[in-house]
Amino acid sequence: MKTLRWIFYALWFLLMVAGALGVYLRVSEGLQPTALGSYIVWCALPILDIYFIGLSAGAFLLSSLVYVFRVKQLEPVGKLALFTALVCLFLAILSAWFDIGHMERFLSVFTRPNFHSLMTWIVWLYSAYFLLLLAELWFALRRDLAGWAAQQDRRAQLARLILLGRTGLDAQTVEGDRRLLRILGTIGVPLAIAFHGGMGALFATLLARSYWYGPLYPIFFLTGALASGSALLLAVTVFAWPRRDETWRAMITLLSRILVGLLALDLLLEWAEVSTRVWYGVGAEVQTFQTVLFGPYWWVFWVFHILLGILIPFALIAMGQHRPWRLGAAGALVATLFMAVRLNIVIPGLITSAFPGLQEAYQGPRLLFSYFPSLTEWQVALFVFMLGIGLFYLGYRLLPLVQAPKEIA
Amino acid sequence: MSDKAAVTKRRQFLRGLAAAGGAAVALSVIEKLGASPETALAEHEARIQNAVNANADPATLDSLERMRVELVEALKKPANQRRWIMVIDLRKCVGCSACTVACVAENKLPPGVVYRPVIDEEIGAYPNVTRRFLPRPCMQCDNPPCVPVCPVSATFKRPDGIVAIDYEACIGCRYCITACPYAARVFDFGEAYTDGTPSGPAAVAGAQARGYEAAANFEYGNRYPRQKGESPIGNARKCHFCIHRIENGMLPACTTTCIGRATYFGDANDAASLVSELIAQPNVLRLKEELGTEPKVHYLM
Question: From the CB of residue B258, how many other CB atoms can be counted at a distance below 10 Å?
Answer without folding.
Answer: 25
